[in-house]
Amino acid sequence: MRVPTIVLVMALAVTGCVQMTKVGGPQLEHDIYRVNAPSDWNRWDEGNTVLWTKDGFGLQQITFFRPAAEGESLGNTAAAKEPPKFRADMKPTDTMDFILATMSAAGLQAVEGSGLRPHRFAGERGFRFKMSYQTRNGSLLVGDAFAAVIDDKLHVVTYVGHPEFYYGRHLEEAEKLIQDLTF
pLDDT above 90 covers what percent of the chain? Predict the structure, then answer.
């Protein structure tokens, strides 16, 4: 009887800390991105980022970053001593390095990126690349970053998940959702 009580207390503590809402169908993120979710996801708003997950954060998630203009940081780097700043004249390789440096500044570890290639983003010329990192508790996550510089602002959406099961579980739906994203 003791184990279920502990599990219940932990579940209540987690749900009390994170206000999630269920989303599905047409959505508008950051008052910019029109997204059409073919099935339900759980949504959590964390300031400059909006996170969607099916199975739980740390298992897999889509992250919609608020676009970064010249001289701005990407995402939630308030705890970082000197978060990287975006420059609109960055080449795709520099932009990939900026995104990865932003993740490191946010406290993620062993952040790596590879496979940079052209990719359409919201109908515009952009790029994507593979990435991996360890969370603060040491969990490995792998995924993809999709990005474009449009009107001198950096737009980034990522999809990551635990490599052994959760990354691939919703990859097809996540890629379609990101591919169909519009302004």
Answer: 78
* Mean pLDDT computed over every residue of the chain: 88
Cβ proximity of 3 and 15 under 8 Å: no
Torsion of CA 96, 56, 64, 156, to 10 degrees: 10
Cβ atoms within 10 A of the Cβ of 46, count? 12
Chain centre to alpha carbon of residue 158: 4
> Mind listing the domains of the chain with CATH numbers?
19-179 (3.40.1000.10)
Query: pTM for the complete prediction?
Result: 0.88
**Lookup result for tokens 């708003």:** 45
Rg (CA), the chain: 17
Our CA dihedral for 90, 100, 159, 50, rounded to 10 degrees, sits at -80
Contacts of 10 (CB under 8 A, 6+ apart): none
Q: pLDDT category, 14, cuts 50, 70, 90?
A: very low
The Cα 118–Cα 92 span in angstroms is 9
Element (H, E) at 92: helix 92-105
Backbone angles phi, psi at 18, to 5 degrees: -120, 115
Dist CA 90 CA 14 (whole Å):
39
Edge to edge, what strands does the sheet with 109-121 contain?
A: 21-29, 33-46, 49-53, 60-65, 153-161, 140-150, 124-134, 109-121
